[in-house]
Amino acid sequence: MHSLIAAILIFAACALAGNSAAKSIIGRADALDAVKTDMAAIKLQLKYSAAPAPQMLSELRELQHKQLWDAVAANIAVKSGDELWEAVVGEGVTGRLKQLSPEQLEPLRAFVCGMGTSDIATQEKHMELCILRAEQQASANRKGSAERAKVARSLGMLAGIAGAILFV
User: Fold this and answer.
1) Are 110 and 127 in contact (CB under 8 A)?
2) What's this model's pTM, rounded to 2 decimal places?
């Protein structure tokens, strides 16, 4: 009886581990979509706002990665380019964004590094390019994430079944 209960617990633990891995994979795709949405909102705000970047970023309430953009707002007046990005990575890249690879964060890095470096029309074009690159990155990640999540769930179940069989 105890071995049957242990086998069920092993199966459940492995299935939960597989489901957790799948959720993490899907969370990365969602994080990329959220970054793209935030960048589009900032671009629109830049177009219709006369406020300086730190004030504009602080006033935007609907941003999904608010801590990231607060870090940008706090550092943009004193740093620029890669120095700004390093400060933002240290302060604002948390949660789901930490799971992303440097390649996946590249459109965001370019977006942040390009803020406040030229006139508004040029910034808008640069931001639009970064948003398109983020969309491509999200699309590529989304294509593979469903299959990878399914594989992670299946492997968790398979490991659970194998563990249960070995235990019984």
Assistant:
1) no
2) 0.75
